Structures are given as structure tokens and as C-alpha cells.
């Protein structure tokens, strides 16, 4: 039996009763392995599989409890993910990712959905209750953490999940405006911007304005797709009209063929919220990324994975972080303050690097990863699928 990570732990007992004791249960993970590693590892190894131990300790001590009920304590412990009920600068060590502080993998440029932390608690229980995990990941991207995974559960890394036409080249973009903008620009010169279906920095609109003004200042051509629900009405119509009329960039209000844009030779970079699907589609085409994570989910760990690896394939914007995520980063550099001046300086620095020697190195690494991902898709990942079929 295969269970999705979201909420299905609640029906696991009934499913086991129906299927019988000899049927194995597998957890299907569509995020990256690095961000999900803590669901299986205990607090001693920077995980939260034993989160209930911390919850019971706090619940039994009135001084630690501070008048909270058990649900509130569960939420605090699951949010901290460090064996306590608060972010405190604990150093997080995930195989294959350079060390970060606990607050570096958190942030909320978008509101946290109600009930999500209790849902995460159920996901942790499901991880403990299943026999193995199906992972939409690849040894080319996350080899060290996939190797470490075997200590806790049997992994089945079936490769990044990109539809067959997402691996191809030369898909014709049907939208005339987007195709025309890309066709008129040079190879690898255009920045593609999209925050996906569910995310947009609605609590920091000034950061988006800073991004647009920096792109105009640097004369960096870009396509900004506003397809998600949160993106609607969060850019002034006069700004959209001015930019589109100038020809310096294109702001597209609606859905677009992301895979076609990433396949176009003019697309050189992808500025993204660092969701796993967007990462997968970009790397399948060898397009390096600029990460702007903004949600309590996998995005911050994904960004750290891509930007701090030995051969990085992404830049990460740090000054765009909010709340507990602000502070001195473990990876070095200035303190994350989130002030608009700091945001603008970082954006200009990153976009300038993207066009320089450092950006060329990242592009080479991304192109190399694309080849490895293709090879693994038809090799090691295919073997994992065959092994899974025999379970």
C-alpha cells in the first residue's frame, strides 16, 4: 500500500486492517529528501522523528508548559524541529547540505496555512509507521542523504518526476507574446521568474518592487509569470503596463508553459520559490536557479541544498527572509536583516554574479547535473522502480 504524506496516517490503521499484516506500507514523498530527512531522523541527528518525547517533557512541566495545551505545544515543537519548542540557533546537519542554523530553514513570506503543523505531526507518525519510502529524488542531486536514509527506512529513489516532454528540447511556446520576447533575446540572457501555483511574497510587496527596479537598472531581460492565486492583484497595473511597453521585461498575467520557457535557448536563469517541482523542471533542462524561498515547507532546505553544495547550481537570496529566519547565517556573510536597502544590494549583487564568472560556473554545474539526471532516469532510478514493483 502506498500512502501520500499528507494526512493519510489517520487512515493507516483501517487500511492495515483491510489489507492484512503481510502487506507492506510505503510513504510517497514528492519533496526533496534533504528537507524530509528530519521526519525519519531523531533529534540527536537533527531530526524530529521523536518529537513526542519533547512534547511530553514540556507538557509534564508547568514552568515549560507556560499555560499552553498539548496541541499548542505540538505545534511549537514541530515548528522548531530541534527537540525543543523554540528556534534557538541549533546547528542542523543534513548529509550533503552544509551546516545551517535551525532558524535558517524557517521563514514565512506567506501566511502559514491553519492546521499545517498538526498535519506535519501526522506526517512524522506516518513516516515511523511505514516500511519504506518512495522518493522523487536522485543520487545526482541528493546522494549523501539518500545513502544516510537507509539507517531509518528502505528508500526507493525513483528520480525527479518530470513528464517526458519536460526532458525534451525545442517545445514550441504557443503564447505569441512570450515566444516573441524570448526569440528577440540572446542565448542564456533572460531571467524567468515564477513563484509557482501557491506562493507569492504578499507580505513584502516592496521586495518585488526592489527586484523589478534592480532588473531595469541592470538591463537584465526577464519574464515574470503571475499565474498563482496569491500573485493575482499584487502588482499594480500601471507597473505591469510600463514594463511591458518598455520591452525591458515581460510580466505575464496568467498561466504559462513553464517547461517551454525553460527549454528556450534564451532562458538563462530561473528565479523561483524553490519548490521541488520547479527545481526538477529547471534542472532537467540544465537551467541554474536563483532561490527566493518563502514558506514553512521544504523551500528553505531546498535552497540551502542547491546553493551550498560543493558544485552549486543556485544562488540564494537571504535578505528576503522574515521573522525567525533573520539573523547571522551559518554559511557566513552579513546578518539577515530584511531591510529594503539590504534586499536591493543583495539582488543587484546576485544578478550581477549571474552574468559573470561565478554565474558561468553555476551554469556549467547545472548542465552537468542535467546529464546525470537523464542517465539516472534510465539507470539507477529505473532499477529502483523495478525493485519497488517487486515489493
Automatic annotation (TrEMBL):
Sorted UniProt keywords: Transferase
Domain of life: Eukaryota
InterPro entries: UDP_glucos_trans
Gene3D superfamilies registered for this protein in UniProt: Glycogen Phosphorylase B
Alphabetized Pfam families for the sequence: UDPGT
Record GO terms (molecular function): UDP-glycosyltransferase activity
PANTHER family hit by this protein: UDP-GLYCOSYLTRANSFERASE 72B1, UDP-GLYCOSYLTRANSFERASE 76B1-LIKE
Name the record gives this protein: Glycosyltransferase family 1 protein
Species name: Hyaloscypha bicolor E
Amino acid at each position: 500500500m502506498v500512502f501520500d504524506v499528507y494526512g493519510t496516517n489517520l487512515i493507516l490503521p483501517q487500511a492495515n486492517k483491510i489489507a492484512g499484516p503481510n502487506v507492506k506500507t510505503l510513504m510517497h514523498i514528492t519533496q526533496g529528501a534533504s528537507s524530509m530527512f528530519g521526519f525519519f531522523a531523531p533529534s540527536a541527528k537533527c531530526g524530529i522523528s521523536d518529537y513526542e518525547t519533547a512534547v511530553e517533557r514540556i507538557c509534564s512541566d508547568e514552568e515549560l508548559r507556560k499555560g499552553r495545551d498539548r496541541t499548542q505545544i505540538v505545534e511549537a515543537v514541530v515548528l522548531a524541529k530541534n527537540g525543543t519548542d523554540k528556534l534557538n540557533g541549533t546547528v542542523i546537519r543534513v548529509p550533503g547540505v552544509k551546516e545551517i542554523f535551525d532558524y535558517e530553514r524557517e521563514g514565512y513570506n506567506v501566511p502559514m496555512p491553519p492546521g499545517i503543523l498538526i498535519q506535519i505531526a501526522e506526517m512524522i507518525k506516518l513516516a515511523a509507521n511505514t516500511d519504506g519510502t518512495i522518493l522523487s529524488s536522485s543520487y545526482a542531486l541528493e546522494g549523501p542523504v539518500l545513502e544516510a536514509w537507509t539507517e531509518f527506512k528502505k528508500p526507493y529513489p525513483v528520480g525527479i518526476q518530470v513528464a517526458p516532454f519536460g526532458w525534451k528540447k525545442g517545445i514550441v511556446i504557443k503564447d505569441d507574446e512570450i515566444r516573441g520576447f524570448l526569440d528577440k533575446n540572446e542565448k542564456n540572457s533572460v531571467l524567468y521568474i515564477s513563484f509557482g501555483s501557491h506562493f507569492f511574497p504578499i507580505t513584502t510587496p516592496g521586495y518585488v518592487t526592489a527586484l523589478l527596479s534592480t532588473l531595469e537598472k541592470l538591463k537584465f531581460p526577464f519574464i515574470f509569470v503571475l499565474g498563482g492565486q496569491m500573485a493575482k492583484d499584487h502588482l499594480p497595473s500601471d507597473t505591469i503596463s510600463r514594463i511591458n511597453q518598455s520591452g525591458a521585461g515581460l510580466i505575464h498575467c496568467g498561466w504559462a508553459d513553464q517547461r517551454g520557457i525553460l527549454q528556450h535557448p534564451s532562458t538563462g536563469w530561473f528565479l523561483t520559490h524553490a519548490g521541488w517541482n520547479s527545481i526538477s523542471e529547471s534542472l532537467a533542462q540544465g537551467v541554474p536557479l536563483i532561490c527566493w524561498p518563502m514558506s514553512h515547507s521544504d523551500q528553505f532546505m531546498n535552497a540551502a541544498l542547491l546553493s551550498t553544495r560543493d558544485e552549486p547550481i543556485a544562488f540564494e537570496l537571504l535578505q528576503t527572509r522574515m521573522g525567525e529566519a533573520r539573523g547571522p547565517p551559518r554559511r557566513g556573510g552579513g546578518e539577515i536583516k530584511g531591510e529594503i536597502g539590504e534586499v536591493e544590494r543583495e539582488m543587484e549583487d546576485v544578478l550581477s554574479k549571474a552574468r559573470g564568472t561565478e554565474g558561468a560556473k553555476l551554469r556549467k554545474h547545472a548542465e552537468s547535473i542535467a546529464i546525470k539526471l537523464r542517465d539516472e532516469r534510465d539507470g539507477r532510478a529505473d532499477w529502483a522502480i523495478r525493485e519497488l514493483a517487486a515489493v
